[in-house]
Write a structure and sequence with these properties.
Elements lengths: L1 E3 L5 E3 L5 E5 L17 E9 L4 E7 L3 E8 L2 E5 L4 E4 L4 E5 L4 E6 L6 E8 L10 E5 L8 E3 L4 E8 L4 E3 L5 E8 L2 E4 L14 E2 L4 E5 L5 E4 L3 E8 L7
Antiparallel strand pairs: 1-19, 2-3, 3-4, 4-11, 5-10, 6-9, 6-11, 7-8, 7-10, 9-12, 13-14, 14-21, 15-20, 16-19, 16-21, 17-18, 17-20
């Protein structure tokens, strides 16, 4: 198990009311030892001031999943979709053969969201698809068929435990509160931490997870990716 603390993320953003923290190599930052985990190639924490946003830009062959922590995210794309995404909603943009979109904070309050990118499996590029699941229920699995990945949203009360999936790759990101991974054995590597409590913005990368649990220390919100495949490039 490898734990990345929030403060260890690579800082980004253009300074125009946008602050970003990258978990993986992204944009102008490249670390050859940190380019992906399973099919997950990006997990960005974004903070947008009122009126700030990302200008229209393209994506292709990528599954982009967004979770709003606070505030409201206004999304527009070349499929014709225009929506406002709020806390509790899961937004998915399957870029497929190519799509352009904008993201901005059109509200009066600060906006914070977590955006996660996953590489799809082999096969020809499909038409882009956009979807929002409003108010996803706690524990309801959200599957991305083309990536072999499933997102689990868990909202825990103090002392509550949730089983981590038995999967080749498990990525657990703490949105709110504190969560301790229990049942882990073995030490960390390359400065990583084994065990310990995860605070907001911290994430655990677990390979071949079996019999592990997350235990809330106070109220907590946790995003868990269960992944069964790696990207295929040929």
């Amino acid at each position: 198990m490898w734990i990345q603390r929030s403060g260890e993320r690579y800082p980004g953003g253009d300074g125009a009311g946008i602050e970003t923290r990258h978990a993986f190599s992204f944009s102008g930052y490249y670390d050859p030892g940190n380019v992906r985990f399973g099919s997950l190639v990006a997990c960005n924490e974004e903070r947008l001031a009122p009126g700030a946003g990302f200008a229209e830009h393209p994506h292709r062959d990528m599954e982009i999943v967004t979770w709003v922590v606070e505030g409201e995210l206004t999304h527009e794309d070349s499929t014709g979709a225009r929506t406002v995404v709020r806390p509790g909603d899961v937004q998915r943009l399957s870029a497929g053969s190519g799509v352009r979109h904008t993201e901005r904070n059109a509200g009066a309050e600060p906006l914070t969201f977590v955006q996660m990118w996953l590489m799809p499996g082999p096969g020809g590029a499909m038409d882009p698809v956009y979807e929002v699941v409003r108010g996803i229920a706690d524990g309801t699995p959200y599957a991305l068929e083309r990536t072999g990945a499933v997102l689990h949203v868990r909202r825990l009360v103090d002392g509550e435990r949730t089983a981590l999936p038995d999967a080749p790759w498990v990525y657990a990101h703490v949105v709110r509160g504190a969560v301790r991974i229990v049942g882990a054995t073995g030490g960390g590597t390359d400065g990583a931490t084994s065990g310990g409590t995860l605070a907001p913005g911290d994430a655990a990368r677990i390979s071949a997870a079996e019999g592990l649990e997350g235990r809330a220390e106070g109220p907590a919100e946790l995003l868990i990716w269960e992944m069964h495949a790696e990207p295929s490039y040929g």
